[in-house]
Amino acid sequence: MFIYLKKFNIFILYPILFIVNISFAEDRTPLQIRVGAYDNRPKVYANEYGTIEGLFPDVLNEIAQRESWHLEYIQGSWNECLSRLENNEIDIMVDVAFSTVRSERFLFNKETFLVNWGTVYSNNNNHLDSLIDLKNKRIAVMKGSIHTDGDNGIKRLLQQFAIDCEFIPVDSYSDVLACLSNNQADAGVVNRIFGTLYSKLYDVKETSIIFNPSHIKFAFPKQSNIAFMLIDRIDYHLAKMKEDPDSIYNKAMYIYLSGLPRELIFAKTTTSGHKIIPLSYSEKIWIKNHPYIRFGVDPEFAPFEYLNEKGELNGMTFDYVELINQRLGLNMQVVKDMSWNNVISNAKIKNIDLLPCVSITNNRNKYFIFSTPYIQFYRAIITRTDMPFLTGIDDIAHMTVAVQDNSSHKEYLLDQTKIQPKVYQTLKDALYATSNGEVQAFVGNIASSAYWIRKLNLVNLKIAAPTSQEAQTLHFAVRKDWPELVSIINKGLASLTQKEERDIRKRWINVEYKPGMDPGVVWRYIFQIVCVSCIIVLLFLFWNFRLKNEIKKRIQADKELSEANERLKKLDQLKSMFIASMSHELRTPLNSIIGFTGVILLGMTGPLNDKQKDHLTRVNNSAKHLLNLITDVIDISKIEAGRIDVYPQDFMLTEVIEEAIISIEPQLKSNNLTIQKFVPDDILLHTDRKRLLQSLINYLSNAVKYTEKGSVTISVDVIEDKIKVAVKDTGIGISQDDLPKLFNAFERLESHLKIKAGGTGLGLYLIRKLVTEILGGDVFVETQIGQGSTFGFIIPKSISLKHNFEK
Ligand code: ADP
After folding, report:
1. Taking CB atoms and a 6 Å cutoff, what residues make up the pocket around ligand 1?
2. CA–CA separation, 620 vs 55, rounded Å?
3. What is the DSSP letter of 736?
4. Using CB atoms within 10 A of its CB, is residue 448 exposed (0-12), middle (13-18) or buried (19+)?
5. Which position among 92, 618, 653, 714 has the lowest Cβ density within 10 Å, counted as fewest Cβ atoms?
6. 667, 706, 711, 769: which to mutate for ligand 1, most atoms within 8 A of CB?
7. Residues 6+ away with beta carbon under 8 Å from 119
8. What confidence tens digit (pLDDT) does each residue in 767-789 have?
9. What is the pTM of this model?
């Protein structure tokens, strides 16, 4: 038996093991994959050493590593790459916009990598809001771009609307923006990614005209044997990476699209928490060749940057400069004893290399390039306390307004308002002028104004109103011929941890400034004391009385300040709402699509044949659908950021219900449904009318959408100081299992009406948010599958603003 086994070992088992071993070894040999690469920063490009990198390669490399593929990048022009793809000489081509024509030539993966579109930019001489404004304009476009000559490119688009204009073809997107900032063109077209990244280098502004959205994907040869396997694996990993906020995909998207250095995607973190950012060889050499970098500050721009009594630099900026100096081996040194006006004129002639804390203005753009923003601030109007209540910049249009010379506020007033400000050399002078009645208002940075008001003890001044809800950003401004330094500083800024930045803010924003430190104030007190000692008891009493008043006012000023701070914190949250602002941008072009197609459908531009009518109706409906979706998204993101305007007012409930019913009447008619109403007509409410109406319309339109025959009933009951509103239908109903999902965002339940009814899955979610967070109530639903549903809410008859602020 033993001998048999041994023989079995030698003659049978060993050869089997040998074969298995070989096939395992073969399995481990990585699959060789040829990838086409061309030059289109930041999506794909060759770096200074010829290595291919960019959004697409970085993500593809990660997928290849997970799948044990070996990638070989084959470089070529765009057209070379496409013909290689067609001849199966490469296996994958990155960064290809999907189109039906192209899908006849190549295979595409399913998961969209990103969506790109054409954006129109203008310069300061032109204000462009919609396509119509492009009439008779000179438009710079890139030759051969899909946004120029493609099926949905700008040329075709303007031709379709019969808008005449002159096209100026140039070789690259950079040339488009250069043409525009030199005034050789009135408008220019670039893709959104290029625009986002590079428009700041030119004197141009983005308009709300966008067009030609395209889905950018990976493409594969039709005749490839491995294409389907590659598509399957790439889609799998891409979908997973999109979900994970820390994935290479999401990091690369953020970092490339915000213009931060690529190394950050892969940066490791030290034990103290900050990211180690490798400097490139050329950056190291640059630092070595520039052992001393001179920077200038506004000596009174507290708490950002200012010189103290001993002439030492203080403030947030100083902390940032110190950290970046340490971390990157730079030697940035402040040039002292210069007024802000002197600093600016020296910086313009490059006697000063850097301004570490300024905002971007058109004029500064001519002399400097800017780092990524690192501090936010708000612009405010300061007046005397006895001035009337202000709501914003429009209220001071007719007043005499002070502003500091060479400040971004001066440019803001001159460029964006009709105010002709009175210019003062320093911020202090401008505040004194406001305090003693020389001018009626002052416009400046809220934080530094608050600092000087306290320090100079100008108790008769108040922060009256913000100029807008938009935060301004502060940047390092570097002389134009030193772009390397901007990239180095950006790396330094990116290496800071959230904690480091929080600590800096904490240290400087809440500093208690003791009055009396300033020599001017000391002298004022001495003068006052001398006077007081010379005056009889009566005046002494009067002085006491005044002092009390001052304290009261100071407490009031402090209160206003902390309220302003609170408001600013909330606004800060709001700023980060990319979705909301993005959605807002989309509304303008959508409105013009709806408007134009509406006009054409009404036959105002000539007769249409049936096919045209059908197509245009679809465009019009889709645009309306998208607009609804966007409006919902804006509302939701506002509520989620805790910032939605609440306007309680007195009104009769019946009126609002009537209005809601009228707005869904066309749907009722087309579905052949009747509506019944059981609403007492004496209910007076004090709540947010608009939000109540919005919730009612959403419920009613759902009831109509999901009811094939029968009726919809709206009824109201009063329960003490609350009302219960119920919208009942005889529709398809909802299964008990689906109930927990009902009020979630983007949740659409399976039903035979789903496609026909159309919808976004946001309606109920928005109602829940509105009812619970704005109207102070709760929602409910009772339903039975096949029998119908009753959706409703219970809300207080009266809400106070206090209720909403406490939320
Ligand atoms: P949608 O835009 O799809 O209507 P909603 O958030 O308003 O989005 O509703 C979410 C889902 O809840 C709907 O897709 C539908 O399946 C279900 N639903 C809402 N209202 C009703 C109703 N009155 N009857 C039956 N199903 C409903």
Report:
1. 702-703, 706, 729, 731-732, 734, 742, 747-749, 751, 759-765, 789, 791
2. 35
3. G
4. buried
5. 618
6. 706
7. 189, 190, 191, 192, 195, 206, 207, 209, 210
8. 999 999 899 999 999 999 999 99
9. 0.42
